[in-house]
Write a structure and sequence with these properties.
This protein is of the alpha+beta class and 100 residues long. It has 2 domains: 41 residues; 44 residues, HU Protein, Chain A. Helices cover 39% and strands 27% of the residues. β3 and β4 form a beta hairpin. α1 packs across α2. The longest helix has 20 residues. The radius of gyration is 19 Å and the shape is extended. The termini are close together.
Length: 100
Amino acid sequence: MTRAELIAKLKEKYADYNPAMIDICVREIFSAMVDSLAEGKRIEIRGFGSFEVRVRAPREAHNPKTGEKVALDQRRVVHFKPGVKLKSRVNNSNVSTLSN
């Protein structure tokens, strides 16, 4: 689901609300989440999961095309850990295969 699809779904579900405000709210929520993660803060949404920034150590990798070794600097990555309710809902769904 894309952000636009999420906004469309919320507009459909909450037809009495101003569609422009739904759009603004969704964008502001994501903006606040991005800002918090950029500051290194952890985000926890009960029943859904948590996001946190982790540091990956510098390492040596290789270019698969040329085989040349490449030095990668330390970097920060966002890690998501699903909550218990989300895991349960996903595992108990009737979807037999994943689609891209």
